[in-house]
Amino acid sequence: MTSATITVVQSSHDVPLGSFETHLASAGIGVRVVRAYDGDALPALADLGAGLLVLGGRMSAHDDEVAPWLPALRTLLLDAAHGGVPTLAVCLGAQLLAVAAGGRVEVDAPPGREAGAARIFWRPEASDDPVVRPVARAVAAAGERASVFPAMHADAVSELPDDAVWLASSNMYPFQAFRIGSALAVQFHPEADRDLVALWAQDDDVDAATVLAEIDEASERIARAGSDLAAAFAAHVLEARDRTGHGVPA
């Protein structure tokens, strides 16, 4: 039974909600998908429901001419973060939030495209974060050094906003997760399953066989980390809903 509904903003047709659709439904979270790439209008802050999830996309965080909804989406992300709306910003979403809050995003950043199974190293601050806390603690409890998530990006956050809390890094890029207010931003793709990664690897300048071999080798850890993060975000949404009374469907 759906007990709360969140808004999901999708900026590219081939970057959907992926495995998170099932995980959120299992937790009683319904989704309203706004397909911005197909002309859907972004909702107002007051109409987001119980939360906001902004997915990745093929464009850069600066491609306002290619994707004319990006300025409004940057504003919506920042308003949600400062307005107490439980928010998860993924890949492009994370970059949009960083830019909106005064950080920097570099297009085609060195050291190059991060693709495949990325090891995500949680910083001490993650152990107190309302969403990633159980994921970071599970890694420590298992005696592992890092979580493993799919990654597929060439652009990257190169400077965090002044008010961001830095939560995680990878071997290639330092700013893999950060928090601004009520928004968690992640550069990696916790929602991506093998089929999605295969689709992206086919279209991008990567060695698809190598990428999929990495995903297959780490498949159990990837599935566990994605499920844990989805469950933690869902729990955060429901906790905020219970506290504020917002997001309950009529």
Average residue pLDDT: 95
Structural class: alpha/beta
**Count of individual helical segments:** 7
Largest sheet: 9 strands, mixed
Radius of gyration: 17 Å
Distance between the termini: 13 Å
State the shape.
globular
User: Could you give the order of strands across the largest sheet?
Assistant: 2-1-3-4-11-10-9-6-7
Low-confidence segments, ≥5 residues, pLDDT <50?
none
Total number of β-strand segments? 11
Percent of residues in β-strands: 15-25%
Helicity range of the residues? Answer: 25-40%
Helix-strand topology string: EHEEHEHEEHEEEEEHHH
Give your account of this protein's structure:
The model has no long low-confidence stretch (mean pLDDT 95). This protein is α/β, with parallel strands linked by helices and 250 residues long. The protein is built from seven helices and eleven strands. The strands form two sheets. A nine-stranded mixed beta sheet has the order 2-1-3-4-11-10-9-6-7, sandwiched between helices. A two-stranded antiparallel ribbon has the order 5-8. α2 packs across α3 (92-100) and α5 packs antiparallel against α6 (208-217).
